Amino acid sequence: MRVYSMHTRTPKASPALRMTPGRVRLVLLALALLFLALIGRALYLQVAQQDFLQNQGEARFRRAMVLEANRGVITDRNGEPLAISSPVQTIWASPASMEPVPPAKLRELARLLELGPAELDAKLSDRKREFVYLKRQISPEQADKVMALGIPGIAKQQEFRRFYPAGESMAQLIGFTGVDGRGQEGLELAREKMLAGKNGRRVVLKDRRGHIIEDVAAIEYPKDGQTLNLAIDQRIQYLAYRELAAAVEVNKAKAGSIVVLDGKSGELLALANVPSFNPNSRKELDPERRRNRAVIDMFEPGSTMKPFPIAMALNAGKVNPNMVFDTNPYSIGPARVRDSHPKPAMTLTEVIQKSSNVGASKVALMFSPEQMWTFYDEAGFGRSVHAGFPGESAGRLRHWQSWRPIEQATMSFGYGVSVSLLQMARAYTIFTNNGSLLPVSLTRLSSPLPAKSIISPDAARKMREMLMTVTQTGGTGTRAQVLGYNVGGKSGTARKLVNGGYQADKHRGLFIGFAPATNPRLIVAVMIDEPGAGSYYGGSVAGPAFSNTMAGALRIMGVEPDAPSNNSLLPVNQVPEIREDT
Fold first, then answer.
1. Among all residues, which ones are annotated catalytic?
2. pLDDT of residue 81
3. CATH code where residue 186 lies
4. What is the pTM of this model?
5. Total count of domains within the chain
6. DSSP H helical segments within 44-157, as ranges?
């Protein structure tokens, strides 16, 4: 019987697996070389590539923050704010730094920012972007609610939004800024450099949640814009806008404009247009409403031009106020010059009072075309007023060498020459400032700017006296009277030129005048475009707005009456309408 051993023999290791001393040394050498390579790589990254890696890290978390300058305030002549900047918040995101956000939080973010879910998703979809605006210029309270969500990669920054306390009454004059704070229209655009100031800069490191860790460069502090103190009187501006809007509504007109000037300094006290818009709401930026018609629109001024050829003749000594003219119709070539209410003869004063085309044209024809063109040119027609408005019109005064024979006659009563309402108001400073043409100033003056002498003080005085008869019984502007004050002025009615032809059913009605006429302080010019309620004559449609604006403005400025305090005016509906020629 065989007996087997309970112990088995351990098999010997294969020679290929034995760790000989040489192999051990080889493994140790390989590990040492690998370790040395890692140390070398670390030294290379820490020393040779330090700037590159640091820049790469900062590129992901370093932010250059714009420190917005506070835009300069625009004020009226009494320091009342017309345009101010208020702090608001802008929400932005860094999609590259954002972690997965719960859908519920994204829906709440979209709701707070008043964005559609798809719109928000589109803004955040590109995960490579480091910066994207989510919503600009929201209230601080709304921004705080957004930040309370605690979404990584969402941040806020302060900006400024422009507000306009005067609203519609001064919209085209002041203009407005865009969402980036830069001027887009009006004085906001014209005085952009003065108002904008200079933004500052702050470079910081932020963590992934948008929190500032530290500043990495010296802070460049912003320089705020300057204050723009206008010549405008907010009280007169509101009054002028209110009366213009009422006149446009009552006369069912297409549009209207009004200008109020200081007749002694040339300061612009008010300028308004209807229709207008609310500059605080960017949802109503219709180009037609934004247009500053008083400055940009050109039109033929009709009979408001008649005082200028007559003033030229007075200044030259060719006529006097009592000189009698044959005012029967007459012909120039194939054209005929006539009055709608003809009289066989009129004095020069009556030519102004009754607005005679025949009389005005005969005065103009006492001069050569070159002489008349030179006078009109010196009075500012065909030249920009240079008041500083964007898009300011220069009007149109063709050179005398291209005039046809009839054109010299028609230019005496406002056809064949184009002007802006601001140009016409400025031209009347010749009569209020003793014969000298004043520059228009948008800013408040400590003393009048140098004026340009056009006619003699005596000729200017005679023109004032004749223009006073226009608002008196028998004149074309009786509805422009002002209780307690003598008023001088001129009505005008002009057919509109459409597609090369004058339209019988489309007119502009104007009244331009000054008060107190014996020592003028204010000039008011009113233009009503396409009145459609029946009457379209300047004295009827523009006269009442002139009267109400002038009366209120004189009271606001504390100008003493120059007429008997017990004089009385007839109600408008009882004042006879004297129709002038068109």
1. 303
2. 96
3. 3.90.1310.10
4. 0.82
5. 2
6. 50-61, 103-112, 117-124, 140-147
